[in-house]
User: Which sequence fits this backbone?
C-alpha cells in the first residue's frame, strides 16, 4: 500500500469528483482510515465487507490490517478501475459492482462470519443499517460512519432528544457505541455536517426476525406520533390493551420507554394484525 500514489493523486489522474446524487464524501487521510480500521478490529482473518469504497482510502487501511478477504460493494462504476489498482494478486480483494441495498451478503462471504466496515453514503446509511440489523444475514460486527446526527440517534438513550426508532431497533440487536467524531473538513468535498463512527456488536440474545418485524411496527406507530400517549399512538395495534399486556403504562409516551419495554410490546402484539 505504501508504494501506491496518494488518494488525491489517484483521483486527479482519473479525473474523478464525488457525485452528490450518490451521497459521496471521500475520506482521503490515511491516518484517519487506519484509525477506523483499528477501531473495527481485530479481524483475526475474518472477511470484511466495505460498502461505497469510492477511491479506496478505507480499503487501503483494511488491506493493511489482519482482515481476510476484503469485499468491496461499489455502485459507481467510475471507481472500479481505481479499486482494481489495489489488488496485489493475493486474492484477498474482491470487488462487486452493485447496489448494497440489493446485494446478498451471505453469498459474498459465506460460510465464515464477517465484519462490515464502511464510510456509508449519506443517502442510504440508515436503510443499510436496518437491512443488516433485521435481515437474514447479520455481520460479526459493524463499524460504520454516519452523519453525526444519525450516529447519535443510534446510540441515544430513553429521554434523549435523539431517542427514537433507530435507537430501539439497533440496541435490541446490538451493543452500540459511538467511537469516533470527524469534522466536515476531514472529507473531500466537505459535507454540510460533521460525521461520527459507531461500532455495533450483535448480542447473543438478540430477538428473532419475527419479533424484530413486530418491533418495527410498534416503534413506527409509537414514534410516528411521539408526543402522544401510547394509548393513542398505538391505537391501531391495540392501544391501552396492548400496553397493559406488555406491562407498560398506557399514558406514557414513546420517548421514555426503554428497549426492553418496546420488546415486550412487540412480543405482546398479535402476529395476525
Assistant:
Amino acid at each position: 500500500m505504501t508504494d501506491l500514489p496518494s488518494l488525491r493523486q489517484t483521483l486527479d489522474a482519473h479525473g474523478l469528483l464525488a457525485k452528490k446524487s450518490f451521497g459521496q464524501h471521500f475520506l482521503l487521510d490515511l491516518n484517519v482510515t487506519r484509525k477506523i480500521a483499528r477501531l473495527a478490529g481485530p479481524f483475526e482473518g475474518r472477511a470484511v465487507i466495505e460498502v461505497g469504497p469510492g477511491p479506496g482510502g478505507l480499503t487501503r487501511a483494511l488491506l493493511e490490517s489482519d482482515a481476510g478477504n476484503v469485499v468491496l460493494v461499489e455502485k459507481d462504476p467510475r471507481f472500479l478501475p481505481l479499486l482494481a489498482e489495489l489488488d496485489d494478486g493475493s486474492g484477498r480483494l474482491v470487488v462487486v459492482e452493485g447496489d448494497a441495498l440489493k446485494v446478498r451478503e451471505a453469498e459474498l462471504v459465506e460460510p465464515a462470519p464477517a465484519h462490515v466496515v464502511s464510510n456509508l453514503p449519506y443517502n442510504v446509511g440508515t436503510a443499510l443499517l436496518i437491512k443488516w440489523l433485521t435481515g437474514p444475514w447479520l455481520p460479526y460486527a459493524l463499524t460504520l460512519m454516519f452523519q453525526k446526527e444519525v450516529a447519535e440517534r443510534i446510540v441515544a438513550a430513553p429521554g434523549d432528544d435523539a431517542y427514537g426508532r433507530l435507537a430501539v431497533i439497533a440496541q435490541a440487536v446490538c451493543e452500540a457505541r459511538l467511537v469516533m467524531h470527524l469534522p466536515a473538513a476531514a472529507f473531500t468535498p466537505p459535507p454540510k455536517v460533521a460525521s461520527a463512527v459507531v461500532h455495533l456488536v450483535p448480542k447473543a440474545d438478540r430477538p428473532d426476525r419475527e419479533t424484530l418485524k413486530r418491533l418495527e411496527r410498534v416503534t413506527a406507530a409509537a414514534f410516528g406520533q411521539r408526543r402522544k400517549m401510547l394509548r393513542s399512538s398505538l391505537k391501531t395495534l391495540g392501544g391501552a390493551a396492548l400496553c397493559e399486556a406488555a406491562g407498560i403504562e398506557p399514558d406514557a409516551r414513546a420517548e421514555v420507554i426503554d428497549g426492553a419495554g418496546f420488546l415486550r410490546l412487540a412480543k405482546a402484539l398479535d402476529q395476525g394484525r
In short: The two ends are 55 Å apart (CA to CA).
